[in-house]
Amino acid sequence: MNLTFHDKTITGILTLLPAKEVKFEDEMENYNFSIAKSLKLKMAMGYNTHRIFDENVCTSDLCAFGMNHLFEKDLLRKEEIDALILVTQSPDYFMPPTSNVIQGKLGLKNDIFCMDINQGCAGFLIGLIQAFMLLEQESINKVVLLNADILSRKVSKSDRNSNPLTGDAASVTIIEKNTSKNTIYGFLKMDGTGHDALIIPAGGFRMPSTPETAKMKEDAAGNFRSLDNLVMKGDDVFNFVQREVPPMVEQLLQKAGVSKEEVDFYMFHQPNKFMLNKLADKLGVPRDKMPSNIVENFGNASGVTIPTAISFNLGDKLIRESYLICLAGFGVGLTWASLLMRIEHLKFNEIIKY
Amino acid sequence: MEDIIIGILNELRPEFDFTQQVDFIGEGMLDSFDIVNLVTALDERFAVSIDGMDILPENFSSVNAITALLLKNGAQS
Hints:
The structure holds 2 protein chains of 2 kinds. By secondary structure, chain A is of the alpha/beta class. Chain A has helices at about 25, 35-45, 60-70, 100-105, 125-135, 235-255, 275-285, 295, 305-315, 315-320; strands at about 1-5, 10-15, 20-25, 50, 85-90, 115, 140-150, 170-175, 185-190, 200, 215-220, 225, 230, 265-270, 320-330, 335-345, 350-354. Chain A is about 30% helix and about 25% strand. In chain A, a hairpin with a 5-residue loop joins strand 11 (about 215-220) and strand 12 (about 225). In chain A, helix 3 (about 60-70) runs parallel beside helix 4 (about 100-105) and helix 6 runs parallel beside helix 7 (about 275-285). By secondary structure, chain B is mainly α. In chain B, helix 1 (about 1-10) packs across helix 2. The relative contact order of chain B is 0.20.
């Protein structure tokens, strides 16, 4: 579906990355493949370093840490926050919503709308779209969008399809009303028939975790994982992305009346370097306009890869400058979404470590 | 072109004979990660970018299939 929003903008992005780094070479012996083959893949897929949070850290801890950082620097004030949206697949609990936990932990006002959204790779886009819709309300002027995932704990260390690529991260994005007259164009589609392309089969009500679901089994490709682990049908996901994302972006730009050359940056979700480069080539976009350096430096942290890419690649430039940016997220669900929006003169756009 | 393709395949999976007339995918000579490495090497060697929509197992099942794929994507024979 096509979406259009007016008089709304992002005013700040803070990305939290784990201080703990894990090198691909240090984990190669966990995989059921030759060293030579793994090293070749390193270059093509962007396997290098991924970052993971310590075992005792939960999503609410990360979000509270990020927001407290902003409170301390007077970049955000508690009383201004009218809505708190948390997009995560790593909630603290099944119940209550982790956004409520964060609201209580931070002592935010009671006159607030808290909401958890279970979304993954398109989570930054889904969160922004939800924020824009909330800002249509007269009583909502400032929304805090939290994206956080700690999926490294759900990935088998012997799964070479997923483990080397998976990272943890969180981000805090501030969205507000403004009078810039800039139009935000959006596009969103979902296809639940592909819900098992990226899935953690056990641990929910459909298949509770048991000693049986925890048993490690070898798949056809030689990876070892259990039903409690994340499983990705890599070929299906790749084909879905190559089939759906280029026409989505073409349609978005056409609706906005904007040429590809007029877009300053394409900040896309980053599953791996190979997939991003193929998307850039297919769209005819120079690869330096579509950064693909997040997986190799930090890992794929699902819905947090886009804010990470913005903070890492543009940093302070976005405080001084104004850029027309095309955002696209695609994956879990299956869900695919894109936004074309001007991002400019942010109050902050930084990375901190946890 | 065929010799170059066979050379790249041999470098990727030296344990197999890619001059055989067999289905490389069906015989387990190439898996999806080999295809990623193969596409990367072919793109570089033939100065093309193989379309993501063409990265399907059947297009890597034989030297002839790979040759046809490269020609379709603008490689010079």
